[in-house]
Amino acid sequence: MPTYTFNKVSLYGEKSVKCAGDCGRRLRRKREFFQTLNPFNKNVDGSLKQPEQIRAELTEDLNAWKQQPETCIHCA
Length: 76
Ligand SMILES: [Zn+2]
Hints:
Blueprint: E1 7-18, E2 26-37, H1 51-67
Antiparallel strand pairs: 1-2
């Protein structure tokens, strides 16, 4: 049985946005975005994903998340 080391590529996102509700509070959110480098994390052409590529994808996810509105527990 081969042993694989699954390396994790992660990116930490932080944002401070205004509540989407009526209170106008500032909300801080933190989130970790990650993918693992492993034999199953492949591209559509079958090649293994490279760390730089994963980081680029995570950056895209992070930027999309930053655009999402947040609502505080009082307005939810
Ligand atoms: Zn609110």
